[in-house]
């Protein structure tokens, strides 16, 4: 089955450009469009997309609140890919904290856009580049995050896996790095998410940076 995508952006030209790029691929289809975050929840319920590619700044309801609304209101929600102009934007970071799975720059090349949608749909890797890691690390003194990390009591192997997740490695890449099977990696990733109470890899990595467990470099 092709990856189904809902495009959400208040600029029609941006939506048209993304649609043209994504629909040039045999494994991706755009099933709907919206001009504001206020329309996202009804459309997600109606269309059941795999991925929502959503602008972070919109006039009525921005991508941060729209992300929260989808995760709050929709059972088994889609993956959310934030689309933005500036990679070091605080809005992007807040959208990731709210539950978005990664972000994409509007100036990205077509191949990068397609790769981002596929990556987010698979859910095994992380779109969390250096600029956003720096924003997360700036909050490394977060006492609540540090206490939550301590309570999680990760094993030594789980801690290794989390550090590699924070570098953006996929399960297969972690497997090769640690010389363990991919299924074993998946087991460790699931354990990390459960112990941290994280919805996905992005939330786990944010917790790792904000707690100071991982630092950029």
Total number of helical segments?
A: 11
Q: State mean pLDDT (0 to 100 scale).
A: 89
Question: What is the CA-CA span between the terminal residues?
Answer: 39 Å
List low-pLDDT spans: none
* Coarse morphology: globular
Q: Give the spatial strand order of the biggest sheet.
A: 2-1-3-4-5
Q: How much helicity do the residues have?
A: 40-55%
Architecture overview:
With 217 residues, this protein is α/β, with parallel strands linked by helices. The protein contains 11 helices and 5 strands. It has helices spanning 12-22, 40-47, 63-73, 90-98, 110-122, 130-137, 143-152, 156-166, 171-178, 182-196, 201-210, and strands at residues 3-8, 28-34, 51-55, 79-84, 102-105. It has a 5-stranded parallel beta sheet with strand order 2-1-3-4-5, with helices on both faces. The chain starts with a strand and ends in a 7-residue tail after the last helix. Residues 4-121 form the Response regulatory domain. InterPro entries: CheY-like_superfamily, NreC/VraR/RcsB-like_REC, Sig_transdc_resp-reg_C-effctor, Sig_transdc_resp-reg_receiver, Tscrpt_reg_LuxR_C, WalR-like. It holds the Pfam family GerE.
What is this entry, summarized?
The protein is an alpha/beta fold and 217 residues long. Helix content is 53%, strand content 13%. Strands 2-1-3-4-5 form a five-stranded parallel β-sheet, sandwiched between helices.
Give the helix/strand layout.
Elements: E1 3-8, H1 12-22, E2 28-34, H2 40-47, E3 51-55, H3 63-73, E4 79-84, H4 90-98, E5 102-105, H5 110-122, H6 130-137, H7 143-152, H8 156-166, H9 171-178, H10 182-196, H11 201-210
Parallel strand pairs: 1-2, 1-3, 3-4, 4-5
Helix pairs in contact: 3-4, 8-10, 8-11, 9-10, 10-11
